[in-house]
Amino acid sequence: MSGTVLALLDNGAKREWYNAQELADMRLPNIPLTERAIQLLAKRSDWQTSGSLARKRSGRGGGWEYHIDLLPEPARKALEARFNIERLNAVVNVVQTNAPAKTKVALADADGAQRRAAEARKQILQMLEQLVMRGMAYDKAVCDLAVKVKVLLSQEVLTPDENQLLELVRTAKDKGTGISRRAIYNWRKAFKECGFAGLIPGKRKQDALNASRYEWAPGFLKFYADPRKPTVALALDQYRASLIEPTHAPSYDQVKRYLTKLKKADPIAAYKGREGVLALKARKVYVSRSTEGLEPTDIYTGDGKTFDAFVAHPFSGNPMRPEITSILDVATRKCVGYSIGLNEKAYDVSEALRNASMSNGVAAIFYVDNGKGYKNQLLDEAAVGMLARLGTHKEHSIAYNSQARGVIERFNGSVYTRLAKTLPSYTGTDLDREAALKLHKTIKKDLKEKGGSDLLISWNGFLKIFDSALQYYNERPHSGLAEMRDPITGRKRRMSPNECWAQFEANDFQAVRLCQEDADDLSRPAVRRKVTRGLVTIETNRYFALELERYDHREVMVCYDMLDAHQVWVRELDYVEGVETPGALICTAKFEGNSQAYFPKPVIDTAREKKAKTATKRLENRLRRVEQEQRPGYLMEHSGEQPMEVFASAPGFEASTDADLVSVVMEPPARTENVVHLADPIEAPKPQPITRSGRPVFKSKEELAVWVLDNPEKMTDLDKKILSDCMTNRTYLDLFEALGIDTDSLRTLLRAAA
């Protein structure tokens, strides 16, 4: 605004008279923009004959002035808005002064402290007005108040009314304690000009986190911004130790004040480095996605969840945690399909997607994360991939952005975690540590003594309660769906996923479902294979058909069943508009169709056999190491003692191990005169070679244990380490007990020496 801008306020009062040129300069709506046009308008509308609303202009130049009531209503409203703006900004004439004008605070921007100060100032002005109404001069009332406050500040004993007056003054001043005549007159003037908004004090200048004041901050944050989350004291000590002059380091209180200001100014910067990407993302703003306009099957979203409770394995009975893959419809929140396996593999995802496509419909978009179960040839291959054959487009969420898939993430927590907490074998991260240890020990003991545990639900029992939990979820009102009136109670509530789906079907929605024939064809996993003399190979299985002879050395599409390996379905690979697609069915190839009959092995059976072989090999290697530790060294003198019968204990409990109880028996030799019987007490060891330190040379850890029990004062740190390892090894504990060594006394001795 320039200095020639027309002022609408005259000594704080609103101007009501304007000449033609002034009205033209203001450019009001429904008013001409030139002086001559306004004069013609005044003549046509007889403004000059309107009595008290038009008057001759006094002073040089003459002319007419018109009252604002003569203006059209739109012009009057626009002029009133300009009056209010100018009153709030308190701009009378734009004149440059030496001191900058005081910044006004709008009522909407005032915080709690500013509002309290404005209320206190208003109360003080009302007190003075009451004194004036009683006949006291305003200036005298102001002087008396200032003197009274000054006197009260010097007194120690005050009445409740005097205390209230001082508290009111402190609040009104916003800083300091006393009050001055100038402050009261300024408040009075501001109240007359701007009303209550004029009494709001300006905000105090915040302490800027500038580099000149906090030069030490970047160096300190290098130690503080650590994922190990060091305390302020530890980070400050590390920073102080890194300085050439430790005296230049800030104090603990300075650092605490800086961090408090930093958290208010930039919370993300305050936690950066101490928290990872996911944790920081939870502190940032987010965008809520709307499902408006979506129909069922438009978007399916899926995710895998490791069940938070132990379940008995369907074959071995050992405890395991199933991996559940769920498919949800985004529009209705309905769980449309699932699969349960040992881990989130590609065929688990395919099975869940097949179930969803058969029971509820084929999805247009499949929205998933970047896990291996969703990025593989079984789903993505352009010609043989399952999604390509279903006509479903796949979209991946951004890495480290699980919030984008909040629909499925919430489902996993509200359904599966809820179900797991109803089982006695719950083992989630929030389970008490003492309860978790007790659970593991109890299951391990039950497996060893009875071959099973009452804490583990059977596989069939788990499938039953799992299906009930999904039915309960689909029938339960969901907070993310629209409201409806309950047909029984008549009250408003949220729809359930099933009710939302039924509402779409009532509005002529029809899902594209797979029939059984299409499901058998489209949902079978498929791979590319090259035909070699009528044979195609999957895993270690070979399949033969005479029809494949003319496709020798050509790639074909081979579909197979995960649970039935007796045959595969072979199709051609065609090109349609440059895109490779599945072609016609060539034949059904039989397992080992050109050779003698062998027992075919499905893919899952092959995987189980491979896993069992690997587990057996690990146990054999473990047994070999134990036997080698029991054997005397090559340079030690043979004692003539014969090995004894040793039984290995049951393996320790592991979350997803199918290894059975293993017993290792070492056959005793034919000679029995030197065999140590379990019922006989252990004999004292024979004299052995003595080292320079006076200690005997031990041939085994059992001899060391016996010697330490007899000579506890001579035990070294190395002895303590060796025996401590033995006491945590189930094999050595069983061996010590079999030899009659007092393991309880040995354990007590080791604890006392710790």
Task: Note the main attributes of this structure.
single chain, alpha+beta, Arc Repressor Mutant, subunit A, 6 domains, five-stranded mixed β-sheet, 25 helices, 20 strands, disordered N terminus
Strand-helix topology:
Blueprint: E1 9-10, E2 13-14, E3 17-19, H1 20-26, H2 35-44, E4 54-56, E5 64-67, H3 73-89, H4 112-133, H5 138-153, H6 160-173, H7 181-194, H8 217-224, H9 232-242, H10 252-265, H11 267-271, H12 277-281, E6 299-306, E7 311-312, E8 319-320, E9 323-329, E10 335-341, H13 346-359, E11 365-368, H14 377-380, H15 386-390, E12 393-396, H16 406-420, H17 433-450, H18 459-475, E13 483-485, E14 492-494, H19 497-506, H20 516-522, E15 526-530, E16 535-538, E17 541-544, E18 555-559, E19 567-576, E20 579-591, H21 603-630, H22 701-710, H23 717-727, H24 730-738, H25 743-753
Parallel strand pairs: 6-11, 11-12
Antiparallel strand pairs: 1-2, 3-5, 4-5, 6-9, 7-8, 9-10, 13-14, 15-18, 16-17, 17-20, 18-19, 19-20
Helix pairs in contact: 1-2, 4-5, 4-6, 4-7, 8-9, 22-23, 23-25
Mean pLDDT: 76
Q: What is the global morphology?
A: flat
Tell me the fraction of residues in β-strands, as a range.
Answer: 5-15%
User: Looking across the biggest beta sheet, what order are the strands in?
Assistant: 15-18-19-20-17-16
Low-confidence stretches: 1-5, 88-103, 633-685
CATH class of the largest domain: Alpha Beta
E-strand count: 20
Largest sheet: 6 strands, antiparallel
